[in-house]
Structures are given as structure tokens and as C-alpha cells.
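May I ask you to comment on the folded chain given beneath this request?
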Amino acid sequence: MQTKGALLHKPGEDWTVEPIEVGDPVAGEVQLRLAASGLCHSDEHFRGGANLAASYPLLGGHEGAGVVTKVGPGVAGVEVGDHAVLGFIPACGVCRPCSQGLQNLCDQGANLLTGQSIADNTFRTRTAGGAPVTPMCLLGTFAPYVTVSQSSVIKIEKDVPLEAAALLGCGVSTGWGSAVSIGNTRPGDTVVIVGVGGVGINAVQGAAAAGARFVIAVDPVEFKRDKAREFGATHTFASMEEAAGPVAELTWGAQAHTVILTVGELQGDQLAPALAMTAKGGQVVVTAIADMTQIDAKVGLFDLALMQKRIQGAIFGGISPRTQIPRLLDQYRTGQLKLDELTTRTYRLEEINQGYQDMRDGKNLRGVVRYTDADY
């Protein structure tokens, strides 16, 4: 089918909204009409030129929700008319990580930036001229229609607003899980979240919901610090340097059980001050993405061994999306998880460059592209 999408033709350029072709689903695939897509910082990395080994042109977007319009042969568990969230990591359910309960590390994630579909290794999305297009995470939610693997489709109940549900596909699940699952926050803990964007704000509310005594949000943007308090932060600071003294004072020198790095782009020199704020036996959770070529990091080696501290990576919140997303929806229904409040502003697809400029300017927790009847 012919539709439109926001493409990035090379790093450093703006997104261009132009005609694209989306193929019908083959065996094991599903087509959806999307209601909304979140504007995640991960897509901004490609525009900004971070080395993430993707092919161009790139159809952005990996955080979306919509209604199933077509299913290919052999698809089980979803049918036309179902509502679904798209998980940016597929979950096949049968590979070794999936069978161990680590669906967020599914082997099908290995080819997410190739553009080649999981089903048959061909390109499901092309330009109007027929050139192959790489959909971000094999989703490409910066288009009103997508054809994706059933491994990426998580059916949800129809009472949940799709615009809110879209954010579960990345930012909410990733941030919440970084505090609750990977971070293992317990009642009475002290948790520091460094970077309060679309992921970090959910680490804040996850830590608060898990019963942390002190939830300390660190971000240079005053607007985000103010929002962090609305989502459960007990204290806010503009930098790790500014937070270091108060964290020590609040904990009587014990420091934080967990420090979570959810900055826009991770830098190697951010690990040392994070470790310095971490308690004996505590951990630094690294959720933020760095340039793939970044291998230099400053780490207090004494802290790692003599204080038994840990540096722990995290993707998709460290938990299976087919478990995490329904669980978070239950939290939303009971008022323990804020979804509607996360969206600062909505945009038309043609306004996507303004949306990302607002993100760079620190004006949004999460900007969202909302699709209207004119887009389909």
C-alpha cells in the first residue's frame, strides 16, 4: 500500500515526510493502522550522526500502538480489529534468551537495523521509487501504517487509549524496568536517576512506586526537574556534582542503592561520578545509549572491587515485554502508573522536526505524533 513516512536520508539532515510503500504481511506478519508514535531520543541519535550502524534511508519511530488491519498466514494470538502495542525488541518466545525468560534479549533483535524483515529477509518498506528503506527497529512508526513481525506485536485490551499505550513500546517500559526490575528497588532504598526525559521520568515513577525512600532526579533542565517531582521525586538537582553532597547527607554517608543513567547520550566520563554516589554493594544501571564506537570510560576501579559495586546494562527495562506491558497497564488502571501525563505536546507527522527541536530544547517529557483521519 502507499502511505507516507518521515525518512532520514543521511545524518545531519532533517526528517522529510514523503510517500512510501508498505508491503502486505507475509507469513508471520501483521499490518497495523497506528494511532500514535512517541518521539524517542534514540531516533534522534541517527539524525545527530551517532555511529549506530544503520542503513539509510531510515524510516524513524519505534514506539507506537494501533489497530490490526491485516494478518499474514500462520499468525496466532492477534486478529483484525485487535489493539496492540509494538515492542521495539521482538520476542519470538522460542530462542534461548526467550526460553530463559529474557524476551528483551530475543535473538531476533540482532537484525533490527538492517531493514530486512524477520519473516523472509526482504524489505517490507520502500520509497515511492522502489528503493529499500530501513524501518527503525523493523517497526518504522513514523508512518501511519506498518507491517511488522508478529514477534513485535503485543495485544492489549481495548479500554486503554492507544495514544497512551504507545509509550509502553519503549520509554515507559524501559524506564520503569530500569528502576524496578534491573534496579531491584526495594522499600526504603535511595535511588538516583540521572537524566529525566521520556525514559528517566518513568524510572522516577517506578522507583517511587516500588517504595524508595529518596527518589533523586538529576537534570540540567528546570522544567524536567519540576515534572520529576510530580512523578514522585523527593529531591532534584541540576547535575551529579550538585547532587553528590546532598545524597551523602541524606543517607548518612551510605550513598544510593542504585544510580540509573538515562541521559540523552551516554558519555564515558559519566560513570565515575555515578559510581561515587553508589553505596557499597550497590549498582549503576546503564540504560542510556552511547555511540557504538565509544569504548573509553572513566571508572573508579577501587570502588568496583573493594566496595563490591556493579555496573549493570539494561535494555527494555530488563524484563520480557509480553510480561511487562500488561503488568504496566494494570498499574495504569489502578492509578499507580501515569501515562496520560507523560505527553507534553502532540504533533502532526509533518511537524516532526519541530517535535525533535522541542526535545532538544528541553521542552518535552515526551512528544507524540498523533495520526488523524487525514493521514490514512
The longest helix spans residues 321-333.
